[in-house]
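agent: user wants the full assembly modeled, not chains individually. Plan: 1) parse entity lines 2) check alphabet per entity 3) run joint structure prediction 4) return tokens. Steps 1-2 passed, two entities, 480 residues total. Proceeding.
--- entities ---
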Amino acid sequence: MPYEWDFSFLIQYSRLIAVGAAYTIGFTILTAISGFTVGGLIAMVRLSGTRLVALPLMAVMEVFRCTPVLVQLVWVYYALPILTGVELAPSTAAFITLTLYGASFFAEIIRGGITSIDLGQWDAGRALGMRRGALMRRIVLPQALKRMIPPLVNQVVLQLKNTSLLSVLAVPDLLYQGQLITSATYKPLETYTMIAVIYFIILFPLTTLAYGLEKKLAR
Amino acid sequence: MTDTAMIEVRHVKKSFGTLAVLKDMSVTVPRGGVVSLIGPSGSGKSTLLRCLNLLAIPDEGRIRIGTHVMEFGKGHRMPKDRDLAAFRSKVGMVFQSFNLFPHMSVVQNVMEGPVTVLGRGRDEAREDALRLLDKVGLRDKAEAYPDRLSGGQKQRVAIARALAMNPEVMLFDEATSALDPELVGEVLTVVRQLAAEGMTMVLVTHEIAFARDVAETVIFMRDGYVVEEGPARQVIDAPREAATRTFLSHFHRGTSSPAPA
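--- prediction returned ---
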């Protein structure tokens, strides 16, 4: 007997799903901003060439780049409090992890964008008598940011999908709400299909935007 | 002919890693003087030019431009960002590859230094920029972006951008080497005009005929040393050193007699 698809029961869970979507989007925006900020700082330190500070930072970054987010989340939530003696709320642990994970990738994007700017631009700014800050602000960053936009958007897309891992810490994101609904209704097929569709609806415009920007900026 | 020297380079040495590019350079340029540096690639002429506005920091020696003095080597600390910037703001530089700011319009390129470095008002800076663009014949391109300009136009904007800082000295680093032959003339015309106005200039150039024409002094460099230095016509038409003769024999000089073998 074929399976009878029936999505109608999901109507009564619309509030739950809305809360989940809000968590997913909220965490993405917050950690994209914090990750970009921390990543930017890391990139600056690395570019300034003070190796004493840059090397430990790079080590931490590599740990975050080379381990799964899921492991990081569990580790920050369960193991870090044992080491530091400070208990973390699930959402705090999630925020810290996603910030640092994002930062480790954002830092490379930002650094790559800055180093891609022709050295002649630096020469020209310096020759006018610009100091380091002005050179960055007026000459290098405006050009570099343009080149960074497509990879930054891609990273945000990944960041949003990574928020689905927050469910392991019982942060009520989209996937976690899906799990709740499933355990109440025993209808995982419809529920997870619905969840997947919502992810797609949120992300498709973003990837389209990234693609468009890539084409536009490639000229 | 002039009261004091505008540029004084004394015993400047510069190495990149183990490669000694400048080995004890001393050069003097009088106020309003035009000096041309010629020599084979790798002779250190571009490095010397970059040392003059501290885009390359000498390892040793002393550089004075106008009243600004910088000393390097033992007993002297590495100059700070602020001091470097102050020194450079007095020295205009024009690059082989133009290095215009692609995200700014022509007039914004020219205003950038005065506004950002000197803190001048935008309206005032814009007026000055337009006047300078007029001078290099590009007033009508003020609102265009660099990618719309020919090489010769780009280089003239770059000259206007450097002049906007009201520099005491102008440096030209192979300013016509990246240009199509038919565009070289328009840039050289602007340089000639600056020379006539009494701007102190140092030119690294492969335009031997132009160097002979515009520069009072020609310095032939090789391997980080000055091989020969003297009045432009003498060095180019009747070089004393064999190395200079060999180097010059590679060039066809339109106006003067064919190069001696």
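agent: reporting back. The CA atoms of residues 40 and 158 of chain B lie 25 Å apart. The beta strands of chain B are 5-16, 19-30, 34-38, 60-65, 68-72, 91-94, 169-173, 200-204, 217-222, 225-231.
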